[in-house]
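Posted in: Structural Biology > Protein-Ligand Complexes

Title: Requesting predicted complex, S-adenosylmethionine in pocket

I'd be grateful if someone could produce the 3D structure tokens for the following input. Sequence and ligand are given below.
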Amino acid sequence: MDTASRIAANHAIWQRWTALHVPSDFYDVEGFIADPDSSPYDSIVSGLVGDDLSGQRALHLQCHFGMDTLRLVRLGAEATGLDFSSAAVEAARDLSARSGIPATFIEGNVLEPPAELPENAFDLVFTSWGVISWLPDLEPWARTIASRLAPGGVFKIAEMHPTLWIFDDEAEDPELRIKYSYFGRDALEWEERGSYAAPIDEVVGTSHSWQHTFEEIIGSLVRAGLVIEEVREFPLIAWQYTPGMVEREDGLFGLPDDMPELPLTFTLTARKPVG
Ligand SMILES: C[S@@+](CC[C@H](N)C(=O)[O-])C[C@H]1O[C@@H](n2cnc3c(N)ncnc32)[C@H](O)[C@@H]1O
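-- Reply #1 --
Done. Output follows.
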């Protein structure tokens, strides 16, 4: 299967998943509308973006149906979200209207951004949790980030650590078993029953994902002209990636006490130089 067909299959999955996610307990849309500040970012993301984005023009890449985009607005930003799923963008606009939190949502592929996403226009480009695995190639992703940042603007990402990719996330037992090469280049295929946020017993399609090493992540950003300012690693992640993971503080998950700690999440901040 060629890469374009894999991306088309992923797009179909996200159209379907959006319909499942909006009414899900996992996202709790009604709770968000009732009190948007009752479910702030987890401690990793909030440590990354800070608590005051006043006056910042923010672009949220792969924004899904916009909840995290609207959280940027609650912190003071003027925010734009980009996602390739028309269902997600429509749901994001609806959530913005229902919550009374203004934001702009644009439909488009982060690898080939639409012309309506202005260049050199954002002080902050942000993306988080479950994003780069959907992208076959990080070079165009990094170029989108660099071209949309204003000179002096910063890119911030919180994402699953590349080391975690090597483990079998479908194993029943709590042990971590190495299944995948850290340097794997081929697309991985998953038959999806429901989704991570909506565990229904129905096959909704096949998703396709790609691993990316730290060298690729950092290298793509550097080659796009950004200057890396900070990289951090955490023994916690936002979802239960393997069955043995246990819930720790703040809804984040970690390995059980009898296992050595591993990096499960990284955050990174990179700046577009002025001039
Ligand atoms: C796991 S979600 C991001 C979740 C977000 N952190 C949240 O919790 O709401 C990944 C998003 O990436 C979007 N996506 C996947 N591939 C994309 C692409 N090539 N361009 C733009 N959006 C894409 C999907 O539509 C989906 O909304």
